[in-house]
Amino acid sequence: MWQSLQDLGFGFGLALEPYNLFWCFVGVLVGNLIGVLPGTGALTAISMLMPLTYPMQPVPAIMMLAGIFYGSQYGGAIGAILLNLPSHPPHAVTCLDGYPMTQKGKGGTALGLTMMSSFFAASFGILVMIFASPLLVAVAFKFGPTELFSIMLLGLIAGSTMSRGSPIKGFAMTVIGLLISTIGTDVQTGTQRFTFGMPQLTDGIELVSIAMGVFGIADFLRHVNRMKHINSPGSVSLRDMRPSRAEAREAFFPMLRGTLVGTLFGAMPGTGPTITTFIAYALEQKVSRTPQKFGTGMIAGVAAPEAASHSKTQVDFIPTMSLGIPGDAVMALLLGALLIHGIQPGPRLLTEHPDVFWGLIASFWVGNVMLMVLNVPLIGVWVKLLQVPYRFLFPAAIFFIAIGAYSVNNDIFAVYEVLAFGIFGAVFMALDFPIAPILLGYVLGPMVEENFRRSMLLSRGQLSTFVTHPISGTILGIIVLLLAAQAFFAIRKRMGKGGDPLPIPPSDVVA
């Protein structure tokens, strides 16, 4: 432990050098701004700015790119809470309760809770990186394709039961997301699947198109006749942004549980932050005394997934830096940046390039403090967006959505995809189907398929491999218990033994 503290001091010495500090600030500022814009995210920003790092030294280069990554996490929550637009897929869960809080005039409170949860979770994740890296790396080595398939299957099952409505509808929307993920070219065989002869679908459906369509455009279509702006807190001061003691107490345990969930999944290579936020949200719904209120503006529904996302973001660097195994596409880009500078990620990184490893860890704390300072004065600006009339807000947001979708591949077909998914989402929302499980099924679909195939190849087609592996068998047992609990409560409710039926919130009544 003493050696780790000494190494951390060495890292702070590097991170606080004026040149390195400047590029860390640039990264978090750009990430924060990019995260707010609909249709963009860390992946797009890092892809565009990576060429700028070629002439730079490795330490400031990786600090800037990492700052864009976790800075966009802060910014993405702003769009999800204020406009129901998840710029980054993990924030799709934040929309479920963050946006209803905005509709109740508590948008500033939701942003304040997000900032608090994010800083707490990021700080915890940094401490885990410092003191528990060897243990987490050892755990990561125990997760092969069999274990990864089981944990992702658990994520699909848990995520599909998030909705306040029928679990069957949740499962159905998850399956739709899985089917959408199969569109395109099969990586292993090169066979085109479900493209219907359209060359634009050869590479599959863009994630941006689905997220912006089913969350952004669908909400606009449902509220197109609304002429008044959202309830606004009016003149917003720093005091308005500060949660009350009761709200902070209510958020503490969800924030703590979300942080632990994010830390656990951060140690597992190959699992992105999206599954983490879905599972954190599902966990809060299961432990809550009022699960039927989720989706109507629950503080736990904002604090838990945001904490999970930020702790996952920090801990995700452990398998990326120590094993060279990226958790998602953004981590893959960061690995590419290290390779460009002649640094090989892996177990030797800590000994061969301690300046990069410890400088990066120290910059996490420095960058998160910068984000806190930046967001305190800017948070009032974001809340001011609530005062913009819908007749101006909707066309502007749709314009940015179209630009964001088009900019991914410079293809107008992506804009048509956004429109199609927007209509699709509006129809199913009107039929009281949950929308979020679609995104979960789409994101996890390719990884579930890939790890299932690998497991079958390694076991020579024996399905029993998922049971004989201890970790995988334990996870499958949890899945069975979860399904049994869902069936029990559904039967109990149908037989009338669950007490008086709960009233349906007015927002759920379909006109």
Automatic annotation (TrEMBL):
<feature type="transmembrane region" description="Helical">
    <location>
        <begin position="466"/>
        <end position="491"/>
    </location>
</feature>
<feature type="transmembrane region" description="Helical">
    <location>
        <begin position="119"/>
        <end position="144"/>
    </location>
</feature>
<keyword id="KW-0812">Transmembrane</keyword>
<feature type="transmembrane region" description="Helical">
    <location>
        <begin position="20"/>
        <end position="49"/>
    </location>
</feature>
<feature type="transmembrane region" description="Helical">
    <location>
        <begin position="420"/>
        <end position="445"/>
    </location>
</feature>
<feature type="transmembrane region" description="Helical">
    <location>
        <begin position="165"/>
        <end position="184"/>
    </location>
</feature>
<feature type="transmembrane region" description="Helical">
    <location>
        <begin position="61"/>
        <end position="83"/>
    </location>
</feature>
<protein>
    <submittedName>
        <fullName>Tripartite tricarboxylate transporter permease</fullName>
    </submittedName>
</protein>
<feature type="transmembrane region" description="Helical">
    <location>
        <begin position="356"/>
        <end position="383"/>
    </location>
</feature>
<feature type="domain" description="DUF112">
    <location>
        <begin position="21"/>
        <end position="440"/>
    </location>
</feature>
<keyword id="KW-0472">Membrane</keyword>
<dbReference type="InterPro" id="IPR002823">
    <property type="entry name" value="DUF112_TM"/>
</dbReference>
<feature type="transmembrane region" description="Helical">
    <location>
        <begin position="323"/>
        <end position="344"/>
    </location>
</feature>
<feature type="transmembrane region" description="Helical">
    <location>
        <begin position="390"/>
        <end position="408"/>
    </location>
</feature>
<dbReference type="Pfam" id="PF01970">
    <property type="entry name" value="TctA"/>
</dbReference>
<keyword id="KW-1133">Transmembrane helix</keyword>
